[in-house]
Structures
1.
Amino acid sequence: MSFLVVKLVSQRIALGLMLLLAASALIFVGTQMLPGDVAQTILGQTATPEALANLRAELGLNEPALSRYFSWLGNALQGDLGTALTNGKDIAESLSGRLGNTLFLAACAAVVSIPLAIILGLLAVRFRNRWPDKMISAVTLATISVPEFILGYLVMYLVAVKLRWLPSVSIVRPEMDFLDRIEAIAMPVIVLTFVVLAHMMRMTRAAILNVMESAYIETAELKGLSAFRVIASHAMPNAIAPIVNVVMLNLAYLIVGVVVVEVVFVYPGMGQYLVDHVSKRDVPVVQAAGLIFAAVYIVLNTTADIIAILANPRLRHPK
Amino acid sequence: MSRIPTSALIGLVFTSAYFLAALFAPLIAPYELGAIVGDVWEPMSSEHWLGTDGIGRDLLSRMIHGGRTTIFVASAATILSFTLGSTLALTAVVVGGWVDMLLSRFIDLIMSIPTLIFSLVVLSVVPVTLPVLILVMGLLDTTRVYRLARAVAQDVNVMDYVEAARLRGEGTRWIVFREILPNTLSPLVAELGLRFIFMVLFVSTLSFLGLGIQPPAADWGGIVKENKEGIVYGIPAALVPAFAIASLAISVNLVADWVLSRTTSLKGGR
C-alpha cells in the first residue's frame, strides 16, 4: 500500500466525517429555522398557553439554538437520542430493534439484486443492440418510471390477492425463526429488487461497455475467444471497480426505498417509524431517525469512494 | 424538423392528453371532486367508467381532478428548481472564486442527505400546505439542476465568444443571460422532462405517505392511499392512479429521450 493511497483514503474518511457533522447540523437546522414556533406547530392553533410553555420547556426551546444543537449532538454520540414526545419512550431503545429489521430487509434485497443485476448487465453487453438488450432496457425504463409504493401494491395485488401465495402484510415478530422471516419479507424484497435492479444493471452495462472499447479486448476477440470468455475473463476484472462503486451507490439508494416499501407492507422497520412520527410531529424522533438514515447513506457513499481509490491500480502502483 | 420517431410520438400524445385533462379538469370531469354518487367500490360501469372509491365517489372524476393537482404541483416545483438551480449555477460559474466554491460545497452538503429523508425532516415541523410543499420540493431539487447546469456551463464559459464579451466589458448579468444561458439551454430542456417526472413521483410518494396534498384536496398519490385497503379484498381501485402515474412518467420519459438524442451533438456527447 503506497503513501498516496493512504493519503487519499484518509482524506476521504475525514471528508465523510465532516459531511456527517454538517449533515447533523442541517437536520437540526431543518427543524428549527421555521417562521413559526415549533411548539405552536406541533400543538396546533388551539393549544393553551400552559401547554405551549410546557412543550417549550420539554423541547428546551428556551435555551439558545447553538447550545441545544451541541447538547443534542453530544447526547446522540453517546447513544442517547432523547425521548419521544408522543409516548415518552426512549428513542434509542425503540430504534435499535427497528434498525435491525430494516438492515435485514435491505441486506436480503441486496443479496438478491446484486448478482441478478450483474448477470443481466453481462447478458445485455453480450447481446448488445439485440432483443435481450432491448428488452432489458425497456423493462428498465418501465421500472424507473414507477414509484416504489406502486410497485409494492402491484406485487401485493398479484402475489397476495390474486395468487394467494403470501399474506399481504409483512409482520415480523422477535420470536420468528429465520425461514419464517424470509417468507414474511419476500414481497418487500421483490419490490426493492425491482427498485434498484434497473439502475444497477444499466450502470453495470455501461461500465463493462466502457472496458470493452479497450485495445486488449480487441486482441482477445481476434485471438478467437468466445464472446462470453472475453467478457467474463478479460473485461470483467477491469470492470470490477466501477461495478463495486455502482453496487455501493445503489445500496445507498436502497436505504431510501426502504422507507416507502416498509409503509406499504406494514413492516416494523425504521422507515415506518420515521413516517409515523413525521405525521405526529414528534420532532426528537424525526431528528434521530433522520440522522441515522443520513449516516448510513454517507457511510455507504464514502465506502464507494474508498473502494474506487483502492481498486485503481494506477494509484496502488505509482511510478 | 426531422421526423419524430414513433416512441416519441406516443409519448407526446399521452403527455399532451394528461396536460389537457389537467387544464380542463372542471369541464371534463363528470362529477364534483367530493360528491358521493354511488355505492362503495362499485365496479366499472357505463355510469362510473372507473368505478367508485372507498366511500362511493366517482373514481374517474377524482382521477381527473387529482391529476390536475399532481401536475400543477410537479410543474410549479420543476419551474422553481429550474429557475433557481440554473441561475445559481450560471452565476457561480461566471463569478467563480469563493462564490462558486461556497455554493458548490453547500449543494454537496444538501445532497449528502437523501432527498426524501430531508423533506420528511422539514415537513415534520412545517404546516403542510400547497405553497410549502412546492417550496420544499423545488428547493431540494434545485441541487440536481445546479449540478448539471454548472457542469454544462463550465464548458461554455471557456469559449472564445464569452471571453470576447468579457473583453467588451459586459457585466455579469449580460454574460449569464445573453452568452451562456442560450448555449446551455438544450441539455437543460432535456433534463426538464426528467426533473418533472421526478417531481410527479416525489409528490405522489409524499401524498401516499400522508405528508403531501392534504384531504379534502386529492392527488394521484393520495387516491392510492385512500383506496389501498381495497387491494386486500381484490379491488383494484388503488391501481388506477398507479397506472396513471406510471404512464405519465413513461410518456414524458419517451419525449425526454428523444429531445436528449436530438441535442446530444450540441452537448458534445455528454
2.
Amino acid sequence: MHLQEFADRSHLDSTTIEAWVNAEWLVAHPPGQQFSEQDLARARLIQDLRGDLGVNDEGIALVLYLLDQLYGLRCLLRDIQEMRTTASERTN
Amino acid sequence: MAADPYATLGVKKGATQVDIQKAYRRLAKKLHPDLNPGNKAAEDKFKELSAAYNLLNDPDKRARFDRGEIDASGTEQQPRQYYRDFADREGWSGYSSGAGFADFNDFAGNDDILSEIFGRAGRTARRGRGADVRYHLELNFLDAVNGGKQSIVLPDGATLEVNIPPGTRDGQILRLKEKGRRGAGDGPTGDALIEISVLPHPYFVRKGDDIHLDLPISLKEGVLGAKLKVPTVSGAVAVSVPKWSSTGRVLRIKGRGVPRADGGRGDQYVTLKLVLPKKPDPDLERFVSEWQPSDSPRQSMRV
C-alpha cells in the first residue's frame, strides 16, 4: 500500500510515518515507498508502546532492536527444529 | 467482556488513575502478543486487559461504570492483526535480525545446513534484506545421485537454473544465493531455497552413501557361478558370482555407490536372488526329480 493508505489505516500522519522510516523503525519498500500489512502491524505495535505502555522514543528504538533479534532467534530455532525433523524422518 | 475490569487489572475500586496505569503497564508487558510471541494465550488475555484499561482509563466512562450506567461489555476492540502474526511466521521477515547469534558461527561446525542458516543470519543483520523464497523440485533417482543441471519455471514465467550437486539427498535444501525477493532500499536480495524430493528407483535403493540392489540370478548361475553384467548408478559393470551362491548372498562392488563431497564414493551392495525360469521347464523337473539332496535346508529349525 502507498503512504496515503498506510496513513489512513494506521491513523498516523505522513510526517510521523516519514520520521519513523528515517529512524529505521519502519522500512518503506521500493518501488515508490510501499508498505505491507506487516509494516502496518508493526506501526500498531509502536503506537501501543508509545501510547498506553508509555515507552519514550529512545526506548522504542531499543525495544524494536531487541524484538527484531528475538524474532530472528525464533526463526532460527524453527529452522533448526525443521532440519532435525527432516533428518530424523530420513533415518526412520 | 464479562469480567470485572477492576479485577482484570488487579486494582481496588478506589484506585487512582496512576495506579490503574501502573497496573496496566505491568500486565501489558507480560500479555502484549508482540512482546510475548511464544505465549499463545496472550492475545485473548491482552484483549480483555485492553478493554478493561480503556474503560477505567477514561474518567468519564469509569464514573458511568461505577454508577452502573454502563456495563463492561461494549468496550471490546476490533480484532486486529498483531505484528507477531507476520514476524513469527515461517521464513525470515524483513525486520528479523541475526545480531542475537551472529557470534555463533563456530557452533555450526561442518554441518552444511547449520552453517547455511548461520551464514544467512549474519547477512540479515542489515535492515531490509529481501525475503527468501522456497521452491520444491522433484528429481529422478539417478539425476539426484549423479548431479547435473535442472531448471525450475518460476510463477512469473522466468526459469531458474539449479546446479544439482552429485549425491543430493531426499529432503535436502539447496540455497541459491540472491535468487529470492529484492531487498528494501539498498538491502541485499534474499535467497532461493529449493527443497529436493528424490523419486524412488525401480531397483536401486539408497542407504547413506551406499546403493543396494537385489540381483536375480538363474539356478545355473547360482550353482556353477558366472560373470554377470550388473547395473550401477554410473553404468553397468562386470561382476563374478562365485559358484554355489544362494539367495541372500551379498556382493560388494567398491566405489560404485553415491559420490561424496570429498571426491570419494560409497559402495554398491548386490544381494543375489535365485530365480527359477518363468515357465515350467520339463527338462529341469526331470533332472531335479532324480537328484537326492543330502541335507535339509531347514535343519536349524528342527522340523
